[in-house]
Amino acid sequence: MAKILVCDDDKDIVEAIDIYLTQEGYEVLKAYDGDEAIKVLKRNEVDLLIMDVMMPRLDGIRATLKIRENMSLPIIILSAKSEDADKILGLNIGADDYITKPFNPLELVARVKSQLRRYTQLGSTARSDNQSEFRTGGLVIRDDLKEVTVDGEKEKKMEDEQAFLSLPEEEMFKYFDIFKKTMSGRLGKNLMNIEFPLAQEKEGGTQEFLMRIRASNLKDDELLDEFYDKVIENYDYPENYYIILIHAVYDIPGKASDETEMHDASEEIYEHILCSICPVNLSKAGLSYDVAENNIKDRIRDWVVSRPETGFLFPVFNDRSTDIHGTLYFNKNTKNIHPDFIENVLGTPIPRIPGNEINVFSDFIMDNFEGNTTFNFTESLVESLQEVREQKKDSPEMITVSCDEMEQIFGYCGVPDEKLSDFKENWEMYFSNEPVALENIHNSKTAKIVTQDATICIQPDKIALIELKEINGVPSLVIPVNGELKINGIEVELR
Predict the structure, then answer these.
(1) What is the mean pLDDT of residues 451-468?
(2) Which of 43, 158, 354, 376 has the fewest CB atoms below 10 angstroms from its CB?
(3) What is the pTM (predicted TM-score) of this model?
(4) Tell me, which fold does domain 3-121 have in CATH?
(5) What is the chain's Cα-based Rg?
(6) Residues 409, 389 contacting (CB under 8 angstroms)
(7) d(C-alpha 198, C-alpha 213), whole Å
(8) Distance separating the N- and C-terminal Cα atoms of the chain
(9) How would DSSP label each residue in 173-205?
(10) What is the DSSP string of 266-312?
(11) Is residue 398 within 8 Å of 449, Cβ to Cβ?
(12) Which H or E run includes 321?
């Protein structure tokens, strides 16, 4: 028997609704203002709430906002106001339906049945033997959406399990936006394709653990609890955050001989899990306009889920096929890639930090080519890397340089053959076998020349203008001045 709470300051209306709902077999609880309704909800498991807008102490709008902070039961709002703005306000603040007074009791009963059917047959309380699916393009979302919110003390505040199709359409697409942002950024910077060591693919390894999660379709609660606990233990974030884990499949369309995609012919089913970790922050205090009361009042501060900070896709999708040997890791802040999370949750080596690769590149040169880093060598290196950029600038993907390309470049810059004999082995120690993003070792906008007394910035393609000469016994940099010369915007007379 469904339990329904009716809240209205007009006791006659409450009693009338009670009669009709009781005749339909529902158990009715009663409240006469927003505060009383919240207290009843805390003491009882209620399946649906019917609430008036205009009430003393705490009105229906503010009460709905408070209830929505931690409850997801269906709410039907009653109001004497029939304006569209009032209806929109009620629905936007969390109500599921809106009925204008006076109303037909039979219509109210029908709407109650509709909301209960939606929440019990399609919502989180439903269990079906059939797979639920949501399709958009080639993407198919199946099974359940699993979520956990955690505070800064590593304490679980909320655990929720929802069938994806039970979400209101607007909410559903907000989740899609989060998932999209988890996969956004530049490969080699915000997105890092990292491989599992062989040991992690054996029984008990992290790759094997993620494989079991994927195979479970997110229906093994014990397995999911273990996953969430791992994340909570190893994710270093000082504030509240929201963990979202979904299971999805992508029906890869086949390709004809002319490379045309055939959407009615599947080439492969790409089955994967996607995890997003989003900060949850309290909105800023402020004032707002209350449409119902037609006045300005203090705005109720809400906990807002921000765009994801971290996440991962498993397995990797490479060359139109599933690659179970790697995961695509997303991190918004490249200065903090959460090494504990990578090592203990994903079980992969910590990838190179993009912002630090220029320092690694410098260390590689100094460690391996000592005695050869002359001015001419460095000038040639900058010019060569700039030339590579120009050659590959029309590439749709991020520009990278391979180990073989760098060996050729260093040879062209004058590094002796004997120092290049073990190049591949030495390069691998610093950069592994993966191509290096050119932008991480070569600034395309500025070449910075630093001396003890001065710093000079010049466009990389203009570095050939600088000459190293000895003036009065002191090595000096000479830059020809063609045209006007300005210092801090002041034109300098050349005489």
Answers:
(1) 83
(2) 43
(3) 0.52
(4) Rossmann fold (3.40.50)
(5) 31
(6) no
(7) 19
(8) 97
(9) HHHHHHHHHHT-S-BTTTEEEEEPPGGGGSTTS
(10) EEEEEEEEEEEEEEEEEPPP-EEEETTTTEEEEPPP-EEE-S-SEEE
(11) no
(12) strand 321-323
Q: Please state, in angstroms and rounded to a whole number, the distance separating the CA atoms of residues 314 and 84.
A: 45
- Do 3 and 45 contact (CB within 8 A), yes or no? yes
Looking at residue 482, its amino acid is N
Find the farthest-apart pair of alpha carbons in the chain and give their distance in angstroms, rounded.
107
Residue pair 37/6 in contact (Cβ under 8 Å)? The answer is no
With cut-offs at 50, 70 and 90, classify the pLDDT of residue 168.
confident
Q: Map out the domains of the chain as residue ranges.
A: 3-121, 133-351, 355-486
Instruction: Provide the residue type at 441 as one letter.
Output: I
Long-range Cβ contacts of 55-61 (<8 Å, 24+ apart): 55/7, 55/8, 55/9, 56/9, 57/33, 58/33, 58/34, 59/34, 59/292, 59/293, 60/7, 60/34, 60/90, 61/89, 61/90, 61/93, 61/290, 61/292
The 10s digit of each residue's pLDDT in 13-58 is: 999 999 999 998 899 999 999 999 999 998 888 999 999 988 888 8
Q: What sign for the dihedral angle of Cα 434, 440, 445, 450?
A: negative
In which region does residue 162 sit, left (phi positive, over 0), alpha (psi from -120 to 50) or beta (all else)? beta
φ/ψ (deg, to 5) at 447: -100, 120
Q: Residue length, the chain?
A: 495
Tokens found for residue 457: 């910035």
> Does residue 433 have a pLDDT over 60?
yes
When comparing pLDDT for 429 and 322, which is higher?
A: 322
Q: Are 79 and 91 in contact (CB under 8 A)?
A: no
**In degrees, to the nearest 5, what angle opens at C-alpha 213 toward C-alphas 211 and 217?**
115
Q: Which residues contact 315 (CB under 8 A, 6 or more apart)?
A: 214, 272, 322, 323, 324, 325, 326, 327
Question: According to the model, what pLDDT value does residue 264 have?
Answer: 59
